[in-house]
Design a protein that fits this description.
The chain is about 15% helix and about 15% strand. By secondary structure, it is of the alpha+beta class. A 4-stranded antiparallel β-sheet has the order 3-2-1-6. Strands 9-16-18-17 form a 4-stranded mixed β-sheet, with no helix packed on it. Strands 12-21-22-15 form a 4-stranded mixed β-sheet, with no helix packed on it.
């Protein structure tokens, strides 16, 4: 068994700033490691002291004079772990074989104990056959329950949505007539997937520790340390044997695993309502290589409209009910402009960009992205042309952004006034591309034939149309009522956090069937609702207005409840 090596004593020979008794103030606990025997070691940050290399933390099992700091740290970390368990019972189960000493720190950081307690009513059948076999060998008298246990084993968004269910945005901020893509668009991405597994809910602590040490074949990701957050304090502390970070100590023997007890597994409750929908959507997202979709626990099963149970989640493509439209979209490979770049560095030298209208003041072609983020430099009526599947560059080409799988999780939650909305639990930088609007592609003239409840989910592909001009060519829209992705839940705001832009990569621009990509219009704090302007042309009109004449509200306009400081008060219908 792995044992921690003895920790050397801190000499404190280079220490300055202590008081007359050789004591230094402690700033707080900033980290924690858990030994295999369950003992916690705390990383302590000191004030007025540091080593020659600039480090000022030591590791110790207790802080004799400041137990209050340890208690405060444990309380704060306990709250964080409880929040993790409330959010999800998933556990990442892989780590490098050479990081055995970090495994229990890794489990603590993932709130294993809290998730295990929460999952007691959802037991696992892990190792069931092996346990039954072992039990049968150890007993002569069959148990009557054994057999039973084994067997139990527009954005047209122009017309009010007719259904009052909270699976839709509120009527005030969801409907508007056909949308014009804003002149200033957005974007970017990257991906890293990790294997997840339900936490074992029928194994005891000692059993789990033993199993972890006896398994030597599992491969896994580096354990993530408990997030550091300095717990401030201010009392002089003297420690005789502080330890540097990364040094180790001894561990106690681990009790043996199963002792022959028969474990009966209760039947697993089938998923339903919100949980079933979330599971189905996540499966579809994962198949597309995208990050998780979460439905907030604030949304209860009674809030879920019946049609959402039949909703088909499509992360990043269009659905075609009409074979003729699909044949238009799926153009012949010879119609694509293809670049032969190994690495796309200059748009002017990239053959697939020959039709791009994105240029600088000198007329030189530019890519729409810079460093993986949307650069907001395309004029109104212009769409982004990304490298396509026939180009020679790699999938990580800087000109492949909107087409990459979504790499940030999205949470669908219940807003105060506008039904369901979407948000990201992580902070997003300006220019980050979050996804594309998906659904059923149809001709725009057919939109008026849709059932009334669909209209609030129709997004016109009008990003290449310029307001006030005669825009020739076929016109199409996307209906996300029956199928689509998380973008269908994005609400309106007169001061939106996102913008949209048109982009092509699966087809060519001449067919007028681009994707609509959603991009962060500014730095977005973690947890802030993701919104767009359903009627960007109205914002443009207000900006152009001299102020001499107040804009008249349309008699069919909808009252806006976005709550923005510069709310226009209404949305066109």
């Amino acid at each position: 068994m792995w044992k921690r090596s003895p920790s050397p004593e801190e000499s404190w020979s280079d220490a300055e700033g202590g008081n007359e008794n050789g004591e230094w103030p402690i700033k707080g606990v900033v980290g924690e490691e858990v030994d295999p025997d369950g003992t916690s070691r705390y990383e302590v940050r000191w004030g007025n002291w540091s080593r020659k290399d600039g480090t000022n933390t030591t590791w110790q099992t207790d802080i004799t004079d400041r137990n209050d700091l340890v208690n405060r740290w444990n309380k704060l970390q306990g709250l964080k772990r409880n929040a993790l368990a409330q959010d999800s019972l998933d556990m990442e189960v892989s780590w490098p074989d050479d990081a055995v000493h970090k495994r229990f720190t890794f489990l603590r950081a993932q709130a294993y104990e809290e998730k295990k307690r929460k999952a007691l009513d959802k037991p696992s059948a892990a190792n069931w056959d092996k346990e039954i076999e072992s039990a049968c060998r150890r007993t002569d008298e069959p148990d009557a329950e054994d057999g039973n246990a084994a067997s139990r084993l527009r954005m047209r968004r122009g017309t009010p949505r007719s259904t009052p269910s909270y699976d839709i945005q509120c009527s005030s901020s969801v409907k508007h007539t056909r949308r014009t893509t804003p002149s200033n668009p957005p974007s970017s991405s990257k991906r890293g997937a990790s294997a997840r597994k339900r936490s074992p809910s029928i194994l005891g602590d000692d059993t789990f520790r033993s199993l972890m040490f006896n398994s030597s074949t599992s491969k896994v990701e580096s354990p993530r340390a408990i997030p550091k957050g300095v717990t401030e304090g201010s009392k002089n502390v003297v420690t005789n044997r502080p330890v540097k970070s990364g040094q180790t100590g001894t561990s106690k023997p681990v009790p043996s695993a199963m002792k022959g007890d028969v474990i009966f597994v209760r039947p697993v409750k089938p998923l339903r309502g919100r949980a079933l929908i979330q599971s189905s959507w996540n499966q579809a997202a994962q198949e597309a290589g995208a990050a998780d979709i979460r439905i907030s626990s604030e949304i209860v099963d009674g809030d879920v409209g019946q049609h959402l149970h039949k909703f088909k989640y499509i992360e990043r493509s269009y659905h075609f009910d009409n074979g003729d439209l699909q044949s238009i979209f799926d153009v012949d490979p010879g119609a694509f402009l293809v670049c032969g770049c190994t690495t796309c560095q200059r748009a002017s030298q990239c053959d697939c960009q020959s039709e791009s209208e994105i240029t600088n003041d000198r007329g030189n072609k530019l890519y729409a992205y810079s460093g993986g983020l949307f650069a907001f430099r395309i004029p109104q009526g212009v769409e982004v042309i990304e490298c396509n599947k026939y180009c020679k560059c790699s999938r990580m080409c800087d000109n492949r952004v909107a087409q990459r799988p979504r790499d940030i999780p999205i949470e669908i939650f219940k807003t105060k006034q506008c039904g369901w909305g979407a948000r990201c639990p992580y902070a997003l930088p300006k220019g980050k591309v979050l996804g594309i609007y998906t659904g059923t592609l149809l001709r725009r003239e057919d939109v008026d034939n849709l059932p009334p409840e669909h209209i609030g989910y129709v997004f016109d592909l009008d990003g290449t149309e310029v307001r006030g001009q005669d825009n020739a060519g076929d016109k199409f829209s996307v209906d996300s009522y029956d199928c689509g992705n998380w973008t269908r839940f994005v609400n309106h705001s007169c001061s939106p956090s996102m913008k949209v832009y048109s982009v092509v990569f699966d087809t060519i621009r001449e067919v007028h069937m681009p994707y609509v990509a959603f991009v962060a219009a500014r730095d977005i704090p973690a947890g802030e609702e993701l919104t767009i302007d359903y009627e960007p042309s109205a914002a443009e009109e207000m900006a152009e207005d001299t102020g001499k004449q107040k804009q008249k509200m349309s008699p069919t306009a909808l009252l806006c409840k976005c709550g923005a400081k510069r709310c226009r008060g209404w949305i066109k219908q």
